[in-house]
Amino acid sequence: MKNKTITKIIIGGLLFSGLYANAQKTILEVDVAKTITKIQPTMFGLFFEDINFAADGGLYAEMIKNRSFEFDKPLMGWEQPNTKRSSLNMLSGTATPINVVENKNNSNFCRILINDAKGYEIINEGFRGMGVKKDAQYNLSLKAANHDGAIKKIIFQFIDKDKKVIGETSIIPTSNDWKNYTAEFTATETEAKAKLRITFEGTGTIDVDMISLFPEDTWKNRKNGLRTDLVQLLYDMKPGFLRFPGGCIVEGRTLADRYQWKKSVGKVEERKTMINRWNVEFSHKQTPDYFQSFGLGFYEYFQLSEDIGASPLPILSCGMACQYNTGELADMKDLDPYIQDALDLIEFANGDQNTAWGKLRADMGHPKPFNLKFIGVGNEQWGPDYIERYKVFEKAIKAKYPNIIIVSGSGPSPDGEHFDFGMAELKKLNAQLIDEHYYKSPQWFRENATRYDNYDRKGPKIFAGEYAAQSVSGANPNNRNNWECAFSEAAFMTGLERNAEVVNLTSYAPLMAHEDAWQWTPDMIWFNNLQAYGSANYYVQKLFSTNKGTDLLSITKDGKPLTGQNDLYASAVKDLNSKEVIVKLINTSSKSQEVNVDLKGTKFASKGTIITLTSPNLEDENTFASPKKISPKESEYILKGENAPLNLAAYSVTVLKLKMAQK
């Protein structure tokens, strides 16, 4: 099959040359011997935020919604189908959360009174249902206190949309006092919208709490861990870093509901559930049942970073709530706790076991440090208030941890008054790494491939921390992950790569979205309760990330970079580890184009690899029905001499990989 594929490529090239002998060919020159700059290992990474049900209901594999009855409405997510109320009596049973003084962060449990010998049931709806797979095992756990041995048995059943039982297990509650119970069971059918029905046999009172359900199959088989298919998509990108936990979720609508990392570590059952700021942020997609259990907390983020080979990049509140909401400020004299959070986080990540926070990390199961190198101060704040606070953070962090690289922010936009002010002030402070965000049209991305060409090479380095082409407009629910957006981002990314002297980190945003519970589009990875797929944008990011190389090379036409002339964009690198030269070429034209890459400075093996990502329709996109409609196609490339002729398809991203000959 491989020989047939090669033959087709060669014949296709001959036919093209014969039919279009008079067509203009773009000649590009690459000097392999001359390295412009080293490319940072962090060049292409990931931005994670708990938006679109990305954590609870997504990456975090917990299947029970409101497992500890701590939502603002304590029985949200729980149904009581056989409870019949009247003004005088309760005929079946009642589930009433009440306080527990022992655990201030998990102060509710569910007290259930069963007064009907036929039994009483509650049903958890999961996160827009529960995805269960035939023959897969699921692990259940809960806490229960069985008053006077009143309840003889608790039965747990998966039920489908027709209430058919598709998996069952049970426990016998044996203690008057709180006791942990576990059970396992296997699904007998595959169902995307299953629910968990819990039936109590006997009459009397029982208390339950922390009712939890996980698939046995989690990433690295960790108990109560992460969803395997979603982590696999991240791992496959070979990301240079993982930024977490956001995003505007860092800031909170108010300071009280900002993300506080210390509340996300330690025992899972002692982490305080909080409302998710995205639950009522947008009128077009409100999700009042969106909360954070923090089962996916900072320890798990660090662990995930390590698992996928990414450098951890946590972002912390700088004492400013989201300026699109309240804009609440912590007074400068009250900033010490925020600064201490930053210092303690570095100790949690890097401290030895003799330190307080290093000991907690070790006690949680990771004695070795996480090798934290970066920390972010604020998300996308702007104005004098931010600069004033940033200065205090920088002074304190550098005094204790001089080697930590601090990420600062230039605001939510790539231009305008707030951006200009922030950049000017941060340059005065010799900021190390400035975060820039842009959610713009596909055309903007194509037109701004030269954005960093004139940035000061001796100034602050740049983190393109959040970007995505918007097919309609920013925060519009009609935005799509279409092919025009994806190849326009690729065109822009050649500019990021060409300017690796300045740009050190880049990441698309947001990362993930649940098909039935999103708030923001577009998103790089889409999932439902059973499936996950990468968008066309995902494959663009993956192509760049897995082919970033180690050294930047120049690639020019008539001595100038190819930055959109004739609708063509290009960048080139070499990889000293794989001994390859990698050329990325983006054709944003509606017509195919001939390109000839003139390679100088070394000899090459005759066989290389060509990877193409293309689609004929600007509106094409991947879907659950066709998850790889737009995905890379790889084949062998035969090189003759020092010239690499290519026929670039219309609307295409092409990666040419050539092995340097062994000396």
Observed structural traits:
663 residues; alpha+beta; eight-stranded parallel β-sheet; 18% helix; globular; disordered N terminus
Overview of this protein structure:
This protein is of the alpha+beta class and 663 residues long. Strand 19 (374-377), helix 6 and strand 20 (405-409) form a beta-alpha-beta unit. Helix 4 (336-350) packs across helix 5 (356-363) and helix 9 (483-498) packs parallel to helix 10 (536-545). The chain is globular. The two termini are 32 Å apart. Mean pLDDT is 93; it is low at 1-22 and 85-92.
What layout of secondary structure does this protein have?
Layout: H1 2-19, E1 26-31, E2 37-38, E3 46-47, E4 78-79, E5 93-99, E6 108-114, E7 120-124, E8 130-132, E9 137-146, E10 151-159, E11 165-171, E12 179-186, E13 191-202, E14 204-215, H2 228-235, E15 241-244, E16 274-275, E17 291-292, H3 298-307, E18 311-316, H4 336-350, H5 356-363, E19 374-377, H6 384-400, E20 405-409, H7 417-428, E21 433-440, H8 442-447, E22 461-469, H9 483-498, E23 503-508, E24 512-514, E25 525-527, E26 532-534, H10 536-545, E27 551-553, E28 555-557, E29 560-561, E30 568-575, E31 580-587, E32 593-600, E33 604-614, E34 633-638, E35 643-648, E36 652-660
Parallel strand pairs: 1-32, 3-15, 15-18, 18-19, 19-20, 20-21, 21-22, 22-23, 24-25
Antiparallel strand pairs: 1-28, 2-27, 4-7, 5-6, 6-14, 7-13, 8-13, 9-12, 9-14, 10-11, 10-13, 16-17, 25-26, 27-30, 28-29, 30-31, 31-36, 32-35, 33-34, 33-36
Computed structural class = alpha+beta
The quaternary state of the protein chains shown equals single chain
Count the helices. How many?
Answer: 10
Portion of residues within helices: 10-25%
- Alpha-carbon Rg, integer: 28 Å
Give average pLDDT, whole number.
Answer: 93
Label the overall shape: globular
Strand content: 25-35%
Outline the biggest β-sheet.
Answer: 8 strands, parallel
Please list the strands of the largest sheet in the order they lie side by side.
Answer: 3-15-18-19-20-21-22-23
